Automatic annotation (TrEMBL):
One of its GO terms (cellular component) is mitochondrion. The keyword Ribosomal protein does not apply. GO terms for molecular function: carboxylic ester hydrolase activity. This is AB hydrolase-1 domain-containing protein. InterPro entries: AB_hydrolase_1, AB_hydrolase_fold. The keyword Transcription regulation does not apply. Signal peptide: none annotated.
Length: 311
């Protein structure tokens, strides 16, 4: 599922860094990158969207969107925010890791940055964070794009086992004996055969100023809470969070983008998608798998910008 990840780091991005102290039971300040439209931007005065927040998936970071954000900023004339979710990238670590906590982080981030006229785009885990946030805060989001994930409440044992095995392999590596990145690559090889997948996972391996390697992601918290991430919150959970007995729904324009070869959105998910997002539409990228936005960023930007720019 991680094939063909594209990470293009631009020196023109504005970068903001946060501390990595452990926090429990409260929102954390997220690290983020901004991207503004260039002089080549398409000016569309009728576009009600002025800001776009991009949310990555499990094992990812805001940098995953670098190539896309540059194109998307110009195609929509919007300011882009590429966010590192908690326990990922350079955002703080926390022993609490759930869609509720990530939604709380996002709400704090949006409020602190005074972001309005917003479209959220989220891939996989980030898509579920975006869905929950939109359901809890429908007045703060004008449009929503969910990339290859559904609000399914049942877990996928195959994906769960795959993620857990990767995390356990990462945790078992003796970082004190790691002298170069190829050592880590060789260590992951027995459980991650695909070169592109290993390259993607190794973006989480960082080196401090003393030459000591460390994992950016919070492996222990991800292992402890992986079951929570593998399933979307139930209606009763969302109503409890919202403290409301009214039907839970986000009635504004929503686009689900599915990889034709991916099983992260299945036919049996459509009724739930319609219940929670009654004005959703579906675009299927035939021949593509879970990482469709990395496999064809130009097509992804075209489809996303058309949806965002539409009146």
């Amino acid at each position: 599922m991680f094939r063909n990840i594209i990470l293009n780091i631009s020196k023109n991005n504005n970068r903001y860094y946060c501390s990595s102290k452990i926090n429990s039971g409260k929102a954390v300040d997220l690290k983020f990158i901004t991207r503004s439209p260039t002089s080549n931007a398409v000016i569309n005065s009728s576009n009600e969207i002025k800001n776009i927040v991009l949310l990555h998936g499990l094992f990812g970071s805001g940098n995953n969107w670098n190539k896309i954000s540059k194109l998307l900023a110009d195609k929509t004339n919007c300011k882009i925010f590429q966010v590192d979710q908690r326990n990922h990238g350079q955002s703080p670590h926390s022993d609490e890791f759930s869609y509720r906590s990530m939604s709380d982080d996002l709400d704090q981030f949006i409020n602190k940055q005074s972001i309005e006229d917003l479209c959220i785009i989220g891939h996989s885990m980030g898509g579920r964070t975006a869905m929950l946030y939109s359901l809890l805060n429908p007045t703060k989001v004008k449009k929503l794009i969910v990339v290859d994930i559904s609000p399914r409440q049942s877990t996928s044992h195959r994906h769960n086992l795959e993620f857990r095995n990767i995390l356990l392999r990462m945790k078992s590596m003796d970082l004190s004996k790691t002298k170069k990145r190829t050592d880590a690559n060789d260590w992951l090889l027995p459980v991650v055969e695909d070169n592109n997948v290993r390259s993607f996972l190794l973006t989480n391996l960082a080196c401090d100023e003393d030459g000591n390697y460390f994992w950016r992601i919070n492996i222990d918290a991800l292992l402890e809470n992986i079951d929570k991430i593998d399933s979307f919150p139930s209606d009763s959970e969302i109503k409890s969070i919202k403290n409301s007995t009214s039907p839970i729904e986000f009635t504004k324009d929503t686009l689900f983008i599915k990889g034709g070869l991916s099983n992260f959105i299945q036919n049996e998910d459509f009724p739930k998608m319609r219940q929670l997002f009654p004005n959703y539409e579906l675009n299927v990228f035939e021949g593509f798998e879970h990482w469709l936005h990395s496999d064809d960023p130009l097509k992804f930007v075209e489809v996303s910008s058309d949806f965002i720019n539409r009146e």
